[in-house]
Amino acid sequence: MLATPPLSLYVHLPWCVRKCPYCDFNSHEARGALPFAAYVDALIADLDHDLPLVWGRTVQSVFFGGGTPSLFPAEAIDAFLQAASARLRFAPGLEITLETNPGTAEHGRFEHYRAAGVNRISFGVQTFDDACLQRLGRIHDSAQADAAIKLAQDAGFDNFNIDLMYALPGQTLAMAEHDIARALTLQPAHISHYQLTLEPNTVFAVKPPAGIPDEDASWDMQERCQALLAEAGFTQYEVSAYARPGRQCAHNLNYWHFGDYLGIGAGAHGKLTLGAAQSILRRWKVKRPAEYLAKAGTPAAIGGDEAIEPRRRPFDYMLNALRLVEGFALGEFEARTGLARAAIAPQLEQATERGWLDIQAGRVVPTDLGRRFTNDVIALFLED
Ligand SMILES: C[S@@+](CC[C@H](N)C(=O)[O-])C[C@H]1O[C@@H](n2cnc3c(N)ncnc32)[C@H](O)[C@@H]1O
Ligand code: SF4
Which residues on neighbouring strands pair with residue 272, listed in sequence order? Predict the structure, then answer.
């Protein structure tokens, strides 16, 4: 039986000052003044349209992602949150995160985000090396990253994340270590540490930059940085996520536990368990901001609806749960997919034989080897 899991709300804000050459997110270079008020109206119409899918359920977290949400003035964020909390039950004290590009931080803005209800900021810093930042096409330097974070701290944000990338063009192990040390001096609650990937359809995929570290060098960076973070009191709880005690990202954890989320905004993806129908629905919205603005709130704004059929659920579940250092409970697999654990017994057996997974007391936990080959482990669960 499918049980109804916790529900999160994802809100996509699709514009950036400039498109970074490595980025395949649904982000569009802002040309001229952005239609903030019209976009908030579109978000609310979009939410109204999807509300019947989540009647009566409580929202456990909200995440404003992008694009660059910090391009939006606090009044726009406030207007959306007020409208959303009038339509959906917000859990007391729920986590509300807003992604911020340090190149967009202005004095006074963080106080207003805080007053609007935002209680967690995620900064896209990437690296503190100014030459690397230039090669990545970023709009800010390291001094601006420091300054943006200090502004947020002065406004009372202690729960903030720093996004760093490693295996950057021209980066050495010492440079990657230095990034961690610099980030730690800013006292973040959370660090996301992503290996740079060359995503298809990006400028970097077409014309890869020189000097990208090879797999072994990248792995050394990952291991060394993980050790530095552990020494500083940060525990790795997911492939790329490290947190101080009690500061894990509730929103992302819900994804990794195969929870439900409503996706509002241009190109946003949602995943919803429909208990009465015993089905799981994926829904995504049209990607282009102009089209979204014109169609939000109507069926034409839906880019696609797709049921996650039972035979596909093991793979989709593993794609998320096997990213977690603590793995998953077999009981949770059953509740979230509606399948019996017997459905994955052959793959679990193969993975344990290869030394990739450990199964103890009803929990499936990736081993060190399994964590090195996460993609291979997940691939075992692909439907035939
Ligand atoms: C939507 S962006 C975050 C906020 C904001 N847009 C910014 O870049 O400052 C999410 C994060 O994903 C990471 N990211 C984006 N593209 C990546 C890639 N190709 N490889 C690895 N990490 C990537 C970056 O660390 C980035 O901060
Ligand atoms: S600022 Fe962030 S979302 Fe925008 S293009 Fe760069 S990495 Fe992508």
Answer: 281
